[in-house]
Design goal:
single chain; about 100 residues; alpha+beta; Alpha-Beta Plaits; 5-stranded mixed β-sheet; about 25% helix
Length: about 100
């Protein structure tokens, strides 16, 4: 996959986002949109997503993250720093 022109962004998603399949849902949406990166539960109850894709794709992905799967209740999606090199060929669920 050609990653030239891609942007890397981090998101912290808060609300009822753990125990409702949010990370697996995020991976499904990321795959549909062509977003690579990862999703991980954090001890504070949030899910942190690191994503890389063209900026217009990340905009659509962020909108989807705010909706969440049907069992979730997303209160907030905030951008957070995303450092390090992300995979440009898959979206991973981190434990």
């Amino acid at each position: 996959m050609d990653s030239v022109g891609w942007t890397q962004v981090g998101y912290r998603v808060t609300g009822r986002v753990q125990g409702v399949g949010y990370r697996w849902w995020a991976r499904e949406i990321a795959t549909e949109l062509g977003v690579c990166g990862s999703a991980q539960n954090w001890p504070d109850g949030s899910v942190v997503v690191h994503a890389t894709a063209p900026p217009e794709v990340l905009e659509a992905f962020e909108t989807q993250l705010a909706d969440g799967p049907w069992m979730a209740k997303v209160d907030r999606v905030e951008r957070v720093p995303s450092e390090g090199r992300l995979s440009t060929d898959r979206f991973e669920i981190l434990l």
